[in-house]
Write a structure and sequence with these properties.
The chain is mainly α. The chain is built from 4 helices and no strands. It has a single domain (5-117), classed as Up-down Bundle (de novo design (two linked rop proteins)).
């Protein structure tokens, strides 16, 4: 049976991470939200958006390309998280929770891309 994208573990993890970051950024002051927050939210939202777009593509090359875009957004998100840590925009508890998602999401994202290469 055809699996809906929202049923996949990699998409679900990306969505959960995006929602967690959204809730954190909403508590920041205007300057923090306007500078770092907007960029962070866009990059993390782009992970699941590109996974969904890859799911909707017919050709495996297109699927693979959108997988790569998702991985690029994943790396951009990690860069913004490093800035958040350095600028003390998040608590240690929030950072640990985010890093847990990132550590689980990265290998699953690579596995998704690899499924497109084997076809």
């Amino acid at each position: 049976m055809f699996k809906e994208i929202y049923e996949s573990e990699v998409f679900s993890l990306a969505e959960k991470l995006a929602n967690l970051i959204w809730k954190i950024v909403l508590r920041w002051n205007y300057f923090e939200r306007d500078t770092v927050g907007k960029q962070l939210v866009r990059s993390v939202d782009s992970i699941s958006a590109n996974i969904a777009e890859s799911h909707g593509r017919f050709h495996y090359q297109d699927k693979k390309n959108f997988g790569y875009y998702a991985r690029g957004s994943f790396e951009e998100t990690k860069s913004w998280i490093r800035k958040c840590r350095e600028r003390e925009l998040m608590s240690n508890e929030e950072l640990v929770q985010i890093e847990t998602y990132l550590n689980e999401l990265g290998p699953k994202l690579n596995a998704l891309i690899n499924t497109f290469k084997k076809r």
